[in-house]
Every structure is written in C-alpha cells, then in structure tokens.
Write a sequence for this structure.
C-alpha cells in the first residue's frame, strides 16, 4: 500500500471514529500533497507526487510543527504547543523510523565510500545519494554539516 492510500485509509478511520484532532491533521497532510501536485503541474512529471515526495513533505511538516511548538513554549502558550506536538505524533505515524546517530554516521560513511568522495566539492553528490536512500529517515539539515566535516 502506497503512502497516499495509507493516509486516505487513516482519514476514513478518523472520520468513522470521530477523532477530530487526528482528522484535522490528516486533512492538512492531504492539502500539502495537493498543493505540491498543483505546483508540479507545469513540470514534465505530469503533476503526480510519489512516496519520496510525500515523505519529504511530511518531514517538512514535522519540522515546522516542532519549531512552532518551541516558539509557543517560549511564549508561554502551552496549549498551542501541545496541539502542535499532537500533530507531529500523527504525521510521524506515516514516516519511516528515524535513524539513530550511529546509523546516520554509518550511512554517511557508506555514501562517501560509494561515491568515492574526497573533497568538499563532492558534498552535493553525497547528499543526493543520502536523500535518495534515506528520505524521511534522517534530518538532512543536521546531516549536511556532518558530511561537510568528513569531507574537509
């Protein structure tokens, strides 16, 4: 079952069981996917979004909500922070398991070895390799500096 089907099935189940917060989050996911499809209509792919793109969209959604929750906590708005973190939990149900720091380090080493990267100029190719294999499983914002440090 592809990601889109899993989300649709979860949406139907949330409607049947009247889980308002979960339903709201699932609708936000669907809206983000549809927005991406609309943006892609002019491109050669014909406007379809595959599982890797959906994982990327949901990864961004998680990151946005975590940042919002942090800002709400700093501002003393704990009820809003809790709502954001509840949305993160729903979104994370559809994401693959996050790699541990040791697994990330091993993946970076493997990608560097596979590409034969020797200098910082190869960083883009290493990152592209990691993104093709580990989309949704690691935070590429944190991985980038690690790759850069290894190649320096």
């Amino acid at each position: 079952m592809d990601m889109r089907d899993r989300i649709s099935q979860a949406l139907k189940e949330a409607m049947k069981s009247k889980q308002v917060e979960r339903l709201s989050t699932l609708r936000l996911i669907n809206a983000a996917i549809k927005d991406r499809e609309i943006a892609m209509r002019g491109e050669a792919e014909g406007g379809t979004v595959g599982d890797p793109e959906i994982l990327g969209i949901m990864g961004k959604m998680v990151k946005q909500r975590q940042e919002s929750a942090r800002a709400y906590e700093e501002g003393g708005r704990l009820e809003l922070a809790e709502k954001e973190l509840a949305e993160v939990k729903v979104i994370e149900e559809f994401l693959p398991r996050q790699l541990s720091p040791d697994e990330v380090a091993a993946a970076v080493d493997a990608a560097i070895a596979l590409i034969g990267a020797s200098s910082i100029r190869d960083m883009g190719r290493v990152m592209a390799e990691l993104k093709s294999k580990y989309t949704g499983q690691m935070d590429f914002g944190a991985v980038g500096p690690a790759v850069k440090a290894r190649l320096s």
